Amino acid sequence: MKKTFWDKIAFAYDTAEKLNNAAYVKMLDEIYELIPEGSNVLECAGGTGTISVKIADKAEKIMCTDMSFNMLKYAKRKAEKNNISNISFAESDIMNLDYKSETYGAVIAANVLHLLDEPEKAVKELMRVVKKGGILILPTFLTAHTGAFSDLLIKVYKFLGFNPKKGYDEDKYINMLKACNAGDFKMKFIKGKIPVGLAVFCKQ
Hints:
Blueprint: H1 5-9, H2 13-18, H3 21-34, E1 40-44, H4 50-55, E2 61-66, H5 69-81, E3 87-91, E4 104-109, H6 119-128, E5 130-141, H7 148-160, H8 170-179, E6 185-190, E7 196-202
Parallel strand pairs: 1-2, 1-4, 2-3, 4-5
Antiparallel strand pairs: 5-7, 6-7
């Protein structure tokens, strides 16, 4: 099987995230506060499992998914290292989730929408599996609103094979989410070398 960009850089993914550490840590804290106590959680594009591990003590159980086998391998190791037993792992396509509608009390898809050709379709698919009264949490790097250092960082990523499909700033991200017609959402912006737009939908 041919390795993807994400398979190739899985070993260095956590190190790369630390280059934008202030925004990333704040994002993790914000997500933690949003997770309902004792909820059943789905994380899509979970990468090396940092978010799933962060929220494990609040959730009853977590399904951490990603399209990259290598990313999930590191995620499993992270959970084992932290003696966490309520996280399951599976390869999954965010555009076509193999889960019943209205299954999860909280669904998270962090820093992935800018990588997709059809982010609106992904948002609708994610909302499909959220229970009524549940939440969809969508933090996304705002790669169109950056400075010299982050521009250089993104250029290095692209050289390695990183291929973002979209470049959001605050307004473009809000407009894309409105175009999804997935309901009302709240937005918080997190400052950083690469800022984060954190959107939260509540399913009515």
